[in-house]
Amino acid sequence: MVMHLMHDGGWLMAQAQRLILANLFVALACAAAGWLGLQVTVGEAAVPLVWPPAGIAFAALWLRGPSMLPGIFIGAAGFSLISAGNPVFSLLIGLGTCLPAFVACTWLHHTRPDQPLLDGPGGLVAFLAIPVLAGPILSATVGTVATVAGGDNLEAATASIWISRWVGDAMGILLLAPPLVLVTAPGATSLLRRRWVTALGLVVGGAALLTMIALLEPLWMREGGRFALFCLILTAGLRLGLLGTSLYTLLVAAGLTVMTAHGQGPFAAADYQTSFASLLAALSILSVAGLAIATVMATLRRVMLAEREARHQAEQALARLCQTQNNLVQAEKMASLGRLVAGIAHEVNTPVGTALAAATRLANDTRSIEQALATGTLRREQMNEYIDATSLAARILQSNMERASRLIESFKHVAVDRTRQDRRRFDLAGYLEEVVISLRPQTRKTPHAIALTGATRLSVDTYPDAVAQLVTNLLVNAVTHAFPEDQPGRVELDLRADPTGWIELRVRDNGKGMTREQLEHMFEPFFTTGREKGGSGLGLYLAYSQVTQKLGGTLIVESSMPNRGTCFLARFPAVAPPLSETGEIRPDPPAPIDLAAKRRSA
Fold first, then answer.
1. Which residues form the domain of 151?
2. Do residues 42 and 276 lie in contact, with contact meaning Cβ atoms separated by under 8 Å?
3. Are the C-beta atoms of 546 and 431 separated by less than 8 Å?
4. Cα torsion angle, 406, 410, 413, 419, sign
5. Does a structural domain hold residue 235?
6. Which of 63, 166, 72 is closest to 117 using CA atoms?
7. Would you call 548 exposed, middle or buried from its count of C-beta atoms within 10 A (0-12, 13-18, 19+)?
8. How many whole angstroms separate alpha carbon 414 and alpha carbon 439?
9. Sign (positive/negative) of CA torsion 223, 227, 233, 235?
């Protein structure tokens, strides 16, 4: 507990020391800025043309809060006491420096909570309206009272003093507050570092222009110099951002003020007050124009960055979605292959079991004959019965093994093609029959009839895995969703070839058809009408993807009237286009598969 209190006490002491050092720094800055402001004054009361402590006070309170009030007051009041020697005047000057900045910061924080200074056009308008225009009303009033309280007989010039102090404080905030506040923002100098060549060029160009204007006297040079300065400020606003523009404007303002004080430059005139009046008007226009351009450009940059970030996030989300979708599609393909394997295994088990029973019976009869021969008790009738049983067992074994062989061979062709991406030449009609045979374990559980019509032999050079996936998904979709419960139907696979070398495969049924809404979303991923049956909504999407992306064709669906069935038409070229234009020479494809014998046996 004691250690904890000691740790807290040390932390509080460090915080107090930092606060004292910050106030001391602000006090010295206000005093130094006040001395600079008094170097250029107007009127009998020597009112500063620009009062820099006003800008420092606002920046300090905006960045660090009311804890900076002691430093601001001590700096402004202490310098006034040293320069004027009047305690009342000094106290009022310190109060006039603190009070407007505190009110302006409080007002801004209330109207724009948690918003940075000059954050967009709204922030610029609020900055110009509250700290620049409204805040100096208080400081000008207090400063005028301080001047009168100083003992000078200036009642006749009170209005002029008030206006001069209001202008001086407003210009101090307008010129000094933005760079002091913006320089502390995160990443504020990054744009200046990236465009340091532009910044250096503008500084050198501005210095050269001011020097040329100071040395040359013609009127056209002064007017041209004003326009050139305005162009430089606008260029800074376009290229250097808010911080660079505010710093550049401050440098130009300092140079113009020094030149005007020495009777040189584009704003020098015979009348001292007229010179600085035109200078202040020009500086206010330059400052506001530069900040406006820089604010608009900063807003555009933020919008562009936000749009770029949103586009990047959208692209990442789309990539993740595509990856997830591909994973789901692959999972659907593997699930389909798994159902195929399970069905084939169950289907092969029946003929194999029958053949095993026949072989077992034949082995038992053979042992009986062997025993009869060994004991000499073999009868003719027994031998004839054995011959008949052997002949029957042989027929049973042959038919069941042929059936198992057909199933296994069909499974081999279809399953191997499902797991490979090779392109080859094969007989499409025979391959469709192989696919239908491999799906028989799934389709025979339904009361629907499946028929193959059209071409009996059709050679193609394409991707058998895509064809198998297409036919499987369309056929399973038909027998699963096309018919009402327990109502028998017919699914027909019609294969044709047109004279242009394109294949037309129609999968049609005489079921209940589809609604217009279902037709509109038929090929969208994850759209299904059989979610309660475990449907994933990827079957038809996968079929569509295989036809359009791999086979290079199209897939459309027709279902014009209720209870008139549905027809899927897949059109693709007999010679599939290459998946990638790599220029590689493909090896010669194998010869077409001859399935005539299997069709005859089926």
1. 12-185
2. yes
3. no
4. negative
5. no
6. 63
7. middle
8. 10
9. negative
